Amino acid sequence: MNVGIYIQVPFCQTKCTYCNFHTGVVAREKYAPYAAAVRREIVELVARDEISSLRDATVDTVYFGGGTPSLLEPSALAGILGALRRNWGLAGSAGQDPESAREVTSAALPEITLEADPETITPEKARAWIAAGFNRISLGLQSFADRELQAAGRMHRRADIFAAARILREAGFRNISMDLIAGLAQQTRESWEESVARLLEIRPEHISIYLLEIDEGSRLGKESLAGGSRYSAEAIPTDDAMAESYESACARLADAGYEHYEISNWGLPGFRSRHNLKYWRREPYIGLGAGAHSFDGARRWSNVHDSAKYVASIESGASPREVIEPVTAAQALDEELFLGLRQLEGIDLARVEKKYGVSLQARIAGLRQQGLLEMNGANLRLAPAHLTVSNEVFVELLG
Ligand code: SF4
C-alpha cells in the first residue's frame, strides 16, 4: 500500500486579502522550532499504534503546503525530509542528484512537492531544494497583472514570476505547477487573457485555476459581502465573468496540450499531481504540522490549528491531534461522490454501487435529466459544459 505525506507550513509574509486559510504572519524566529516540532511529530507518529494500518505503507508522495513553505530555510525543509527518510522511508531514492528532478514521471520515484511564492525563490534556494530531494515546485502566481497582485495583497509582481521560472528551470526542475485565480479584484477580460497567455508561454508541466471564493473567511470576502470597497472589493468581476474566464482558459489550455483531469487542475501528459489525486481517490494520506488533516482509509483526523499550540503540544510530548472521526459507510459514499466527481473522468458507477451495496439511480436521476451529470461509458461524470456549477451539483447530490 502507498501513502502520501502532507506537511503543513502555516506561515506567510503577509496575509493576502482573499485568503481563507488558517495561516499567519509570525516572527521568523518561530520557523525553526516549528520545523523541529514537525520532525518530532514524524518520529512519534511512527512509534504510535494508531496508524498501525499504514505502518508498512510506502511513502510515494510528499507535499509541503501552506502557507508559504518556501519561507523556511532549505536546511529546515531538508531536515524534515531527512526525518521522513530515516523513520518511514520513501519510495525510490529521489534527492541528492539533480537528475532525479528530471525523472519525476517514473512511478518508482516519490513525487516531492514544495509550494513556493515567486518572490521567495533564489538560485541558492532552488539548488538546495533539488539537493534535498524536491522534484516538483508548485508556484502560487495568481495573476500576471501587477494591479491585481497589489489589490490581492501579494508580495510578488509580474517580473518576479518570470525570474522564478528561469531560476527553477536553471536549477533543474522539470515538474513545475503554477496557479492562477479567476475573479481577482481588478481583473478584466483582457488582463485574464494576458495572464493565461503568459502562463502558456512559460509552459509549466501543471496548471491549477481556481475561482475566487467570496466568504466570511477572508478580508476581501467580508468586505464584498458587506458591500464595501476596501481591497478593491467593488472591482471583483461578476460570477458570469468569472465563469467566462474559466471556460476560456479551459479551451486555451486544451489547445495547448494540457489534459483537464480535475475541476481546477490540468497537466501535460504524465504530469498530473500524484499527491492530490490521492485526495480525490480516497487513498490514505498523513498530514503533519498545525491544522494538517489525515485519512487512513477508515478514519479522518486533524491536528490543532494554532501553530503555537501545535509546537507546545509536541514539545510537551502530547498528541497534537484534535479531532478523530471514524468515517461511516454513508459518509464514505458521499465522499466517493463529491471527491470522485471532481475528476473529469468521473467515477465507475457500478463499482461504487457494488462497494456500498446501494443503487444510486434515484439519487442521480434529476441531475442527469438537467444535463448536469452524464454517463460516459461506465463512468458517471460532471457534464463538461457545467463544471463552473459543480458546487451546486454536489449540494443537490448530497442533500
Ligand atoms: S500566500 Fe497563500 S496561504 Fe499565504 S496568505 Fe496568501 S493565499 Fe493565504
Structure description:
Helix content is 39%, strand content 20%. With 399 residues, it is α/β, with parallel strands linked by helices. The chain folds into 2 domains: 280 residues, Transcription Regulator spoIIAA, CATH 3.30.750.200; 71 residues, Arc Repressor Mutant, subunit A. It has a 9-stranded mixed β-sheet with strand order 7-8-6-5-4-3-2-1-9, sandwiched between helices. Strands 10-11-12 form a 3-stranded antiparallel β-sheet, with no helix packed on it. A 3-stranded antiparallel β-sheet has the order 13-15-14. α2 runs parallel beside α3 and α3 crosses α5. The chain is globular, with a radius of gyration of 21 Å. About 1% of the residues have low confidence. The structure holds iron/sulfur cluster (SF4). The site of iron/sulfur cluster has 11 residues, from loops.
* End-to-end C-alpha gap: 33 Å
* Main beta sheet strand tally, sense and closure: 9 strands, mixed
Helical coverage, percent range: 25-40%
Q: Would you report the number of β strands?
A: 15
CATH architecture of the largest domain: 2-Layer Sandwich
So how many helices? 14
Q: Low-confidence runs (pLDDT<50, min 5 residues)?
A: 94-98
How large, in whole angstroms, is the Cα Rg?
Answer: 21 Å
What is the string of SSEs from the N terminus onward? EHEHEHEHHEHEHHEEHEEEHEHEHHEEH
